[in-house]
Specification:
Length: about 400
Amino acid sequence: MPHIEISTSLDNLRLERDAIVLYDALATIEKDPGRAAAFERIASNERRHADIWATRLTELGADVPSPSRRPRARVRFIILVARLFGTRSVADLVQALEGDEEALYNAQAATPEAAAIAEDEREHARIWERLQAAPAGGSLAMEPSAERVAAARTATSAAQIADRERWHRVGGRSGTLRAVIFGVSDGLVSNLSLVMGVAGAASENSSFILLAGIAGLLAGAFSMAAGEYISMQSQRELFERQIALERAEMELMPEEEEAELAAAYRAKGFTEAEASRIAHRIFQTPDVALDMLVREELGLDPDELGSPIRAAGGSFAAFAVGAVIPVIPFLFGGGNAVIAVSLGLSLVALFAVGAAVSLLTGRSMVFSGLRQLGIGLAAAIVTYAIGSIIGVSAG
């Protein structure tokens, strides 16, 4: 059996102890008994994982550190948000954390310990999906396995199953979170650069700087919203066109399309006879046949083509939240002191946005925060210098 090095076992032990702190805290914060019990169950699993790595370290002749170390900043941040806004608000963050841990253990899957723990992490993700699917304010309803199997056997469509298992749609929320964070970042950096550039040219004219900042906020937010709307609408129209073409082909050449669907099933491992029989049965219902052709040939989900209006609204709001930060101090006056306050407030926000990015990437909060701060500060310095040169030349 291949050995895991002592340093790797130590890292794994720290990871599991952080998870214990996280889930113990979530279980304490959560008021719903069903959700709290689910968190306690996961915490129990994490304790078992920690015991595995502690035992492993002992077998390797290494000292097992005491569990007194504070959890890493990412875990402390999640606990803080959960205390302020409830455990539902941190679902995406915790699932991203679980995904990182699963990926880490998958990379160590040559060992039986890591492979078993990776499977536990996948189960934790499934528990979170079920928790999010449960209605707010209600307890988590977990159907017995036999009932779920019976319900699946009596379902008349994939959509009906999807309605029952809403947790499978949770994955898209991480994409939404990512878009929000980067929208805020874009608004913050671009409007900070604009405000600093105008301030460099006219530092004493606070009204002019304020007007430029508000104009930059609105122009950028509307531009982002319009671009997102056009992009999403164009994509949706393209998909709808592809579906319409598939429908026309099915009406004009049903035998050919049935053969193509059978080929897709052969590629999945069915025998030729099985694939042909399944495809022929599906084609007895045209709407079902079209749905399957769209999914198999085009790789599209006809029920999930995206909403241009929601995408545009989200982009507008995210950009505006970031862009308003450097403008706020100029509502109260002008001069070098206000410029310094605007820059300082923006730099704090830039660090916070960078730290938030680390919640998605798994990188160090300090590294991600300082990187974002450095990029924004560099842009502000350059635009301020250019504004100062232009202001002197114009004067």
